[in-house]
Amino acid sequence: MASAVPPRRQAGAEPGQLRGVAGGPRLNSLFIFALLFSALFLLHAPLLRLPYFWDEAGYYVPAARDLLLTGSLIPHSTASDAHPPLVMAWLALWWKLSGYTPAVTRTAMLLVAAFALLAVFRLARRVANLRVAVASTALTALYPVFFAQSSMAHADMAAAALLLWAILFHVEHLRVRSVITFCLAVLAKETAVVVPVAIALWELWWWVQRRRGRGSQFAPPPPRLLDACVLALAPAITLAAWFAYHYARTGYVFGNPEFFRYNFGATLHPLRIILALGKRLWQITAYMNLFLLTAAAAMAMFMAPQSDGEQPRPRIALDVQAIFAVVIAAQVAFDSLAGGATAARYLLASLPLVVIVCVSTIWRRTRQWRVILGIVAAGFVLAWFVNPPYPFALEDNLAYRDYVLLHKRAASLVAAHQAGESGKRVLTAWPATDELAHPYLGYTAAPIPVVAVKDFSVPQLLPAARDTSQYDMALLFSTKYRPAHDIFRGFAWWQRWQTRYFGYHQDVPPEIAAQIFGPGGRIIFDESRNGQWVALVAIERSENARLADR
């Protein structure tokens, strides 16, 4: 299946760029990887010992821990979501070698992020040049979503890394390597299968067009029909084998029924699809100050190409740009149809492709490209710390650190309050239920019994307040980020749509929650950080009520 690399296609650019950058020496990939990992490690050093956050605590870390302790690819301490086991195996391996600590986990994920950045560098250098490669790699690393996800134990970074390497091999016409890497990508996350299928369908469509005598600069190099079929089928068969194994062990193909309903069954309403598509397009073009880059590239398109000597600066080959567009469109479309959370991290494989094209356009058409990209980089770093004026996922910048610190503090106070008094339970919502109940997540030294509610909205708290004999304290926190000046707050229709289709709700403030719990509800701890809050409400009952409970 491997074929010789046609010279122009290998470079992904104009003739004369065939040997990298002006025929310069090939940079050592191992050296670049070490440099990228070192930079990531230094930038993330203050974050490496943080306890696990949200989906880390709720699924990936428990699943990897089960694999470490029992050797089972199917988690048993949490409901299986049918995610393939590659990332969990990677974490279990590092825990086996270096010990089970958050620092080991996050360092292992930084290795994956550095691997992804190396793919970005090599891909950008292959299709453009060294300047574009360095700038694209730096901007990808600094983009808030990529930066935050770099040390987090999620499957998306690993899937993105493998997809980027597979796209690189595909652009280089290394078909066997590309197919193998795509197969590994679907073992990191099942949704990665849409990328090779989309590329294969693109190739097959042009295969049909060529048989009709049609061609275009956007058309991929003519593949063999068998190669295009293998590109689609091999990853799909790999994923099907995993699902068959999962079904044999659990009786479910696509994870537990609630997981399937949330991510597939509840997402197929036409209006919800349109809204999700709007969110995806925002995330891939403007989210977290990404608009600084895309807007600059759009304005640069109205300028003539700059010249180096007598020749204008070359663009990325149109067939390569078409492949990038196919990948981005496939991920945006699929993630608009499936996935209840509409998380930005699901588009991590597409983000660097947008960055590469935009950086190449700005470099090609503007004289002050360094200044422009420097401003973009500053905007990305600013978005690490400054939250947007609308609700967003805390995992998309350093807001997740504020969450973890608040919850670590609250869990310590709960543990101190419960010390020596067995049988006391705490009312709270997921993921704090797991944070208190499972010491291996890093929040408590011993398990604390919990009573679970879905969230801290009025419909959830009122039933729980009718029988306070089930718990002695409530740990409340902001489950949804609400900025002080939400630009959407005045739009009632937006709030209705968010509530109906994306699980939005309004958490009751601590002082109101204490009143809901009745005369015995008393706030004993309340702290906030950058728009997030956590509170402890003690439930004080009369002596007669205490005797009745016994």
Question: Strand order, biggest sheet?
Answer: 4-3-5-7-6
Helix content: 55-70%
- The count of helical stretches stands at 23
Rg from Cα: 25 Å
Work out the oligomeric state of the chains in this entry: single chain
Approximate shape: globular
Structural class label: alpha/beta
- Distance N to C terminus: 74 Å
Could you characterize the architecture of this molecule?
The protein is α/β, with parallel strands linked by helices and 550 residues long. The protein has 2 domains: 28-386, no CATH class; 399-549. The chain is 57% helix and 6% strand. The chain contains 23 helices and 7 strands. Helix 19 (432-437) links the parallel strand 3 and strand 4. Helix 14 packs across helix 16 (351-365). The termini are far apart. Residues 1-25 and 543-550 have low confidence and may be disordered.
Can you give me a brief rundown of this structure?
The chain is an alpha/beta fold and 550 residues long. It is built from 23 helices and seven strands. Mean pLDDT is 90; it is low at 1-25 and 543-550.
Task: Explain the layout of strands and helices.
Elements (H helix, E strand, L loop, with lengths): L6 H5 L17 H16 L10 H16 L15 H13 L3 H26 L2 H13 L1 H6 L6 H16 L3 H14 L5 H18 L13 H26 L6 H9 L4 H16 L5 H10 L6 E2 L2 E2 L5 H20 L13 H15 L3 H17 L13 H20 L7 E4 L2 H6 L12 E4 L4 H8 L7 E5 L14 H11 L7 H7 L4 E9 L2 E8 L3 H7 L1
Parallel strand pairs: 3-4, 3-5
Antiparallel strand pairs: 1-2, 5-7, 6-7
Helix pairs in contact: 2-5, 3-4, 4-5, 5-6, 5-8, 6-16, 6-17, 8-9, 9-11, 10-11, 10-15, 13-15, 14-16, 15-16, 16-17
